[in-house]
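Team,

Forwarding the record for the chain on the shared tracking sheet. I've put the sequence and predicted structure together so nobody has to dig through attachments.
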Amino acid sequence: MRDLRFVAHLDILGMSSIVERNADAAWELLTDLVTVRDKTSSYELEFLEAKERIEISEAIRSVTFSDTILLFTKGSSDTDLRCMIVLVTEIFHKALCKSVPIRAGISFGKFYFNFDKSMYAGPALIDAYRIGESAQWLGIALAESVKERAIALNMKTGKSKVVVPWSLPVKEGVKLCSAINWPAVVAHDFTVAPPLSVEQFYRPFERTFGALGELPPEVQAKYRNTIEFLNEHLILHAKTHTPIHRTSGKLRFPTSGDLQR
């Protein structure tokens, strides 16, 4: 069906409290996030085994409202899903580099849109929103609607799987789901050997959000949950690490085997 798509919902963690405290800082965060979105949307991907070369802008559309970025594919193929996983991970990565804390959910299903009338609706949007918003961390969670297809892609970065199982802390407790292994994908950017402390990870966010100890307990827990995921997968990745080669102007992603950047 032509209205079946992959959908991602990304939002800034703690945005409402920043808006109330410092509207200028909130606008700066949002500006940084949109800058990241625009930069990553210009990427070209090359999937080696499939011998496909895809421009992100040709495969995925985006819209921003308030502190939220909504991404959706034009189709429902495996290549569309690969592009979505790569793009969401890159946005998450680049946002962290700019000290913008975000969480994301990815889903699959019916999604309808009308750009001219700014209309966006469908079960896939609700699905992506729910899995992303319920997650008590900074990370990328996969809804049940997309989990099996994402696992079947067998995407890897070095020898580490890009899609991994995780007991995800959610508002109602803990939910076993699949998540994107972003610590392994961006391992080359860490200058401190794991394990990292919550304080080390949070330090870049202090300027905007204040001292870690002054955050509400439930917000502190989100950073602790993040660091637990980060340390486990960064340590596992380090044990089988293969040097990552950068390319100029392009990102090269195989359909299985090594995920190169």
